[in-house]
Amino acid sequence: MSNVEKQPDELACGGVATAAPEPELLRPREVPLGGPRAMLVGRTLPNRDRRMVGAWCFADFFGPADIAGQAGMQVPPHPHTGLQTVSWLLEGQVLHRDSLANTQLIEPGQLNLMTAGVGISHSEESPADHAPILHGVQLWVALPEARRGVDPHFEHHGDLPVISTPEGSATVLMGSLLGGTSPAKTYTPLLGAELTTEPGASMRIPVEEDFEHAVLALSDLTVNGEQVSTGDMLYVGRGREDVTIGAAGAGRAMLLGGVPFEEEIVMWWNFVGTTHDEVAQARAEWERGREDSDAQGRFGVVRGYAAPALAAPALPNAALRARGRVRNRS
């Protein structure tokens, strides 16, 4: 998934900062995906005050959108560095293509995981014969400095651990939960899981106490007794033995967690780096390769998408700075 804003904010993440009140409700801001007529997504990470949960640095929630008779999702080829993209659908289909020549359709219950590392490009689109509803989440995971330059690679996992209880179920996308471990590659201690609850039931999930956790509500929920509306995220902090979710009807949520990410990183457009110069260099290399496909460079070329690759936005006038993962409120 790309950040397709034409004037993206500087999104600085990472690093140790002052403690924040817990729990903390993070409300999304609306961002158009793919242009002025595109569907809107709700972005809860990075947020004004809290920019990360563990290594999770970006969280978009979209739909359910009625795309019957429409093109649906259309995100042209674009670059990434220094992160992993995590695609998860509740309804519909999305076709992924990348510069490593991978072409993969993703459907509900399946995980597309792309590790950008030193650099990769990809596109995402609703296939021509797509379902009428598109609904899902797109997440990014920041890579630690020691692994930020790994070779890019792509994984598709169609058979993930699903743990069922009388109150509901958990599908483990990344990391381990309730005795199930995902085969997806991680570079920091991390957890990503979809939780569902039976109507009126309350589900208690034991969690790692040295992780910090947040719950992204995919339906109206109660999380540890607090009301959380669809699309909102509740940061529940670190040092908890469990997280409890429930709903009046059937409940659905993403549970995200990980060891607090203590590195300072800068995220701008679709790049994660540590300095302005690193991000500026990635942008310049993408533009050279985009304008001259023979040059290709570290981002390669995506074959098969019908429209031109995305141009990178102009860099801001001021130098990009790495700042703390939590805004200093003192």
TrEMBL record:
Q: Where is the Pirin N-terminal domain?
A: 45-141
Keyword Iron (UniProt): yes
Q: What's the cofactor?
A: Fe cation
Instruction: Enumerate the Gene3D superfamilies for this protein.
Output: Jelly Rolls
Name a GO molecular-function annotation: metal ion binding
Where is Fe cation bound in this sequence? H78, H80, H122, E124
Protein name from the UniProt record: Pirin
Q: How is the cofactor bound?
A: Binds 1 Fe cation per subunit.
SUPFAM superfamilies of this UniProt entry?
Answer: RmlC-like cupins
Q: What is the lineage of its organism?
A: Bacteria, Bacillati, Actinomycetota, Actinomycetes, Pseudonocardiales
The organism's place on the tree of life at top rank? Bacteria
Using the record's annotation, list all stretches that form the Pirin C-terminal domain: 194-290
